[in-house]
Amino acid sequence: MTKPDPKDPSNLSLQYELQSPWWNKINDVLGGTERMRGVGAQHLPQHPEESDNAWANRLAVNTLFNQTELTLAAWVGRPFSEPVKRVDIHSQLEPFLDDIDLEGNNVSVFARKWFQGGVAKGLHHVLIDFPVVGEKKDGLPRTLEDDQKENLRPYWVDVPAENLISANAVRIQGKWVLTEIRILETIEEKNGFLTTFKERIRVQTPGHIQLWELVPKTKRSRKKEWRVIDEFDIGLDFIPLVTFYTDEQGFMLAKPPLLDLVNLNIRHWQSTSDQTAILTVARFPIMAASGALNEDNIVIGPGHWLHSPDPSGKFYYVEHEGKAIEAGRMDLADLEEQMAQYGAEFLKRKPGNLTATARTLDSAESTSPLQDMTIRFNDAMETALRYTAAWLKLEDAEIGMLAIITDFGPEKFEKVDLDALLAAVKSKAISKKAFVQELIRRGVLGEDFDPEADMKLIEKEIKKAAKQEPNFNPPGGPQPPQPGEFPPKPPGGEE
């Protein structure tokens, strides 16, 4: 085993080495059928005594039921059912939000990708960067006015978990403060009609950046080594990297919310392969014979006849009883139910079996795991906006706020929930207004529902109905009670 070179910037952190097997497994499943086939025996082991050809055929026809991808899309879709809210954004920052990454993506599109990456892997990063600029021709120091004239401004860079190969930090007043990060970047180079890609490592410390690339050790050598190809100072005294954690386990450590679901999905992939294989066997019955000659060239088919020298001999088909097929089908159904339930659990406000009343009345105090993630993500976006402002020296200004919705209700509204709410209104435990607001929150009523306007419509309908109500009291007959007259006087009765 080669001893790591302490001067090699490509050395991986311990956190990276611990989590990378999880990320690879998640990427394999999210990559779909072709990627799962590509990794071969890693997720579809070869059975004992199974031939290489049989295993290869089993792999080639297997298809992934990608519940992981469906669940991730459902989780991400709920908080991003509306664009990212912009609240009192500073006038200098507002124009940036329509092209936050200088690649044409607005802040809603970029934030969705950031959130999705974090939900998939447990953490995802964004670097707030600034274009590299040279010295002014007049030799004077650059100013913010110079940057504005040249349309230079900060922008957000997406940094997936796999690309941050190392990060170091120290604790200051209870918070982690970054002292160094190393990011693996892929650079596209064009040479005529040829496009090539090469790796580069960005080593960033407070106020300084180094760019490393693999270059030949000598002009004639094929061996390469990492060397600094460029370095420069920047105008910040901190590292503007923001990490979104879904469930922080430590510095740069997080358990991916999808990990257990991915393991179930891989089991489903394996069970699907076995089920397909057994169906292939079951659909082709085997011809058997007793008392037949041991001949090599027995032809079975139309226009051919079979014979046996043994009077008691017979020919027959051996068919599968189907018990194993049914067991395999049930296994797949059970796995699919477990995977669907896993996704639903992240939308529930409280684990366990609660009564309808408890689930309804406690909803304001409890949050689902997915809602917890959205709250953390809003904190991350706030930090990113603050770092963006720091490039423009707006640290002390009111920069505003970015936010995604965090209250999107449970997965479905059950009848017992409605009954509990109606009972609460009837017993005056909650007001009618609170009842309507809860129906809106749970998606029973649309978000554009206006309770006050609806109340006016109800009053209007009541008045209209009263005018149209027929009078069934004949002349001289009993009259309805009048104010202060109860019970009514009978016709001709005495006072």
From TrEMBL:
Spans annotated as Disordered: 463-495
Matches recorded under InterPro entries: DUF4055
Pfam families reported in the protein's UniProt record: DUF4055
Residue ranges constituting the DUF4055 domain according to the UniProt record: 257-392
Regions of compositional bias (Pro residues) in chain numbering: 472-495
UniProt-recorded name of the protein: DUF4055 domain-containing protein
The species this protein was found in: marine sediment metagenome
Taxonomic lineage: unclassified sequences, metagenomes, ecological metagenomes
